């Protein structure tokens, strides 16, 4: 099995409701988020690709147009945690890009700091 990954960053604000009084994440704050998609394939296509990295550009445009410099509380219909954002990106990829690329999306990893990440792993087909 071959795997590749592609990573984008964007800046956005959010806050999380339902946390204990004084919890810093309850206040509006921002992060430089990182979104990484992982694709896999049993065999390579073209000159030796899982997927040509250029074919993933529509996801980068979606991130820039929809998430970058936004309040994620206004963008997402779920609490804007890293976990929920990873699922959101996976759902967008599956609905808008998966049919156009050779590799199969297997995971989306979202980091809100350099030391903290959440991952949404898709079930094997």
Taken together, the total number of domains comes to 1
Mean pLDDT: 95
Sheet with the most strands, sense and barrel status: 4 strands, antiparallel
SSE ordering: EEHHHEE
Sheet-strand content, in percent, reads 25-35%
CATH topology grouping: Tetrahydropterin Synthase, Chain A
Helix content: 10-25%
Rg, Cα atoms, Å: 16 Å
Strand order of the largest sheet: 1-2-3-4
What count of helical segments does DSSP give? 3
Q: Distance N terminus to C terminus?
A: 14 Å
**Overall CATH class:** Alpha Beta
Total strands: the figure is: 4
The chain-level structural class is alpha+beta
Just name the CATH architecture: 2-Layer Sandwich
Specify the overall morphology: elongated
CATH superfamily descriptor: 6-pyruvoyl tetrahydropterin synthase/QueD
Poorly predicted ranges? none
